[in-house]
Amino acid sequence: METKLWGGRFAGEIAKILARFQNSYRFDRRLWRQDLRASIVHARMLGRQGIIPEEEAERIVAGLEAIRADLESGRLRWPEAGSTWESAVAGPHEPEEPEDIHTLVEAWLVERVGEAGKRLHTARSRNDQVQVDTRLYLKEALAGPGGVDEAVRELQRVLVELAKQYGETIMPGYTHLQRAQPVLLGHHLLAYFWMLERDRQRLADCLRRADACPLGSGALAGVPYPVDREWVARELGFSRISENSLDAVSDRDYVVEALSDLSIIMMHLSRLAEEIVLWSSSEFSFVELSDSYSTGSSIMPQKKNPDGAELVRGKAGRVFGDLLAVLTVCKGLPLAYNKDLQEDKEALFDAVDTVLGSLRLLAPMLATARWRTERMEEAASGGFLNATDLADYLVRKGMPFRRAHEAVGRAVRYCLEKGCRLEDLSLDELRGLVGAGAAQLIQPDVFEALALRNVVAARRAPGSTGYEPFRQELAAASSLLERGQVGKED
Ligand code: ARG
């Protein structure tokens, strides 16, 4: 099998170290479906346009389709691939590892259909070919079945389910990780729903810009054949063709954008994971992960660890690294294609795989956890979560907010010394604490204002944690979930 596409000009053999170092087959072989699909359409176009004889185009297409069928059924065996560049390229007695997926597909084709196969690469370069493959891959990875958008929606669905089931539990809301004001658990969970919703929009937006077909750009300058770029783009499901051949072969904006969007998803998942880690500690005990989604310790028999959530948190760093790697690769590259650009794929694949794994882990981890709502309510009853509302009560009765803030601060200090809650104070104690002139502002209805349910319910404006706005929020989130998929809306 011919494993090089460019032997003619060279008298000497390529050094093993260079062959290994530049080899991309071990990671770009996963583009095989896209590579075959794009090659089939390209060959058809060559035949239709009379660039190669029609019957040779047909033989090429039949050969590529047979390769696809044989790969799908497992009849065709993949050449072995090393797992790192060091292990790429087999030893002296074994066949060489192909340089990349494009090389392998063409070699397989020539094996099957002979000379006709050598016409496939007419009016094409690997520089535009790899760009079409990667764009096709990205569309499927983000918006296709089993892709990122689907996995994001599954996690959103779990959040909505939990919000329906336990949503009206009162828990402490935090600022600075200090108990601040009571919130509904559902409101807290749905905060992540909206982050993920923005993530979906970003993915769709990225795909809109990536949706241009680069084929026909050739190596860099376009090709001197009457190619029908529009037809190729339509056949491959692109909405348009790229505008500039130099840009088309060297642009990796869409990879950087996808990596940015995936990084933002990981940043969100990492925050969620951090809360799971915190909440499953004995100090919080707001949640208990199911045994299936926890791990043990090799030395401490009592341990039940949230390793999965910790890894999601940790892997955020890895995806940020993928983004930074590609940004750095592209910075300072002169036009047009440079081999540096081959470095985009491992980063992109790694980020997609990591995000998919994290989403697919978190969804069932949350769905199967025990949500200890009694612990949340207990935690909410300490920590003076109703202090702001006592101040608001005084404001409603006419006191300026700053004075009310001061008076309630005194009341809190008094309670801390006494070891009690604001609602445990007597009417007289409360009156004494706000000061002589204002004592009559405090009436028995103050105890209603201090009840946590009423503190929550008082937040009636849309977007707040109150029961009514929360029910509306939940309905809005549920109905969004029912709507279409990323890239298909508009
Ligand atoms: N494997 C390369 C890449 O991923 C595509 C091949 C282009 N190579 C070349 N020498 N022009 O970018």
Offer a quick outline of the entry.
It is built from 20 helices and six strands. By secondary structure, the protein is mainly α.
Explain what you see.
The chain is mainly alpha-helical. The protein has three domains: 7-122, Orthogonal Bundle (Fumarase C, Chain B, domain 1); 130-175 and 184-376, Fumarase C, Chain A, domain 2 (Up-down Bundle), CATH 1.20.200; 380-481, Ribonucleotide Reductase Protein R1, domain 1 (Orthogonal Bundle). The protein is 58% helix and 4% strand. It contains 20 helices and six strands. The strands form three sheets. The chain has a two-stranded antiparallel sheet with strand order 1-2. A hairpin with a 2-residue loop joins strand 1 and strand 2. The longest helix has 27 residues, at 253-279. The radius of gyration is 31 Å and the shape is elongated. Bound molecules: arginine. Arginine is lined by residues 24, 28, 100, 126-127, 130, 337, 339, 341-342, 345.
CATH topology of the largest domain: Fumarase C, Chain A, domain 2
- CATH class of the largest domain, named Mainly Alpha
Strand content: under 5%
Please bin the fraction of helical residues.
55-70%
Low-confidence stretches: 485-490
Mean pLDDT: 95
| Order of SSEs | HHHHHHHEEHEHEHHEHHEHHHHHHH
Number of helices: 20
Q: Which ligands does the model contain, each kind named once?
A: arginine
The CATH architecture of the largest domain would be Up-down Bundle
Q: How do the strands and helices of this protein lay out in sequence?
A:
Blueprint (H helix, E strand, L loop, with lengths): L15 H7 L2 H4 L3 H17 L5 H20 L27 H13 L12 H18 L4 H19 L3 E6 L2 E7 H26 L1 E2 L15 H7 L4 E2 L3 H6 L2 H27 L7 E2 L18 H24 L13 H25 L1 E2 L1 H9 L5 H10 L4 H18 L8 H8 L11 H5 L1 H6 L9 H16 L8
Parallel strand pairs: 3-4
Antiparallel strand pairs: 1-2, 5-6
This protein binds arginine (ARG).
